[in-house]
Write a structure and sequence with these properties.
The protein is mainly beta. The protein is built from 1 helix and 13 strands; from the N terminus they run βββββββαββββββ. The longest helix has 4 residues, at 116-119. It starts with a strand and ends in an 11-residue tail after the last strand.
Length: 219
Amino acid sequence: MLNYSINTNNGSADKRSFNNTGASYTVLDTAFSNFFTLNQLSNLVGLSLNFKGIKQSFNIGNRVSDVSFKQINEFTGNTFKRHFLNWNPNANYSYNFSQQRSLYASYWGNTQQPSIDQIQPVRVNTDPLNIFLGNQSLTPSFSNRFSISFYDYKVLSDQYINFSVSYNFTSNQIINSSETDAAGKSITRYVNLSDKTPNGYNFWGSYGRKIGFGTCRPD
């Protein structure tokens, strides 16, 4: 199966701050004012292969999106362009031992591109003790997740067992790096975590069966 889609998104954000002249707020504060327009174009191509047999089935595929956006500062005329290539691979496999017993395995990958605020955040004066700085050198992060699950059910005893195990890790994760000075002002920067790879494990299981009770008869 092959599919293609194209998407365009155009928007603008006009935020202005004014200083008090004594009678009213009429003087534009250029340090805390901004007017941006954003044009974003995305092209997505998806390809998947599916197979279904008597006892087993699998699916493997990938979606690739080419994202380009252009941000224009309408006050200064400066243009900021970025381009990202996002990958979303996936694979699934299942095997049915019987109608009541099955095994399932899957893999999922996802590219997370930095947001426009993380790349080039605008200055605000609502919280002077917390300053956020953008990073134009940010690159996308990539997450991987593997999982296996098993299910078994016995009709006569009404017994079931179900468990799943999963593992995930993220490469090049985007995090906040903060520094606080002696005056209590915190400056936060967005950076890629290149020297460590956050990961996690998860295990879940359940078991149950019907419990029977005997009957008592009086002598």
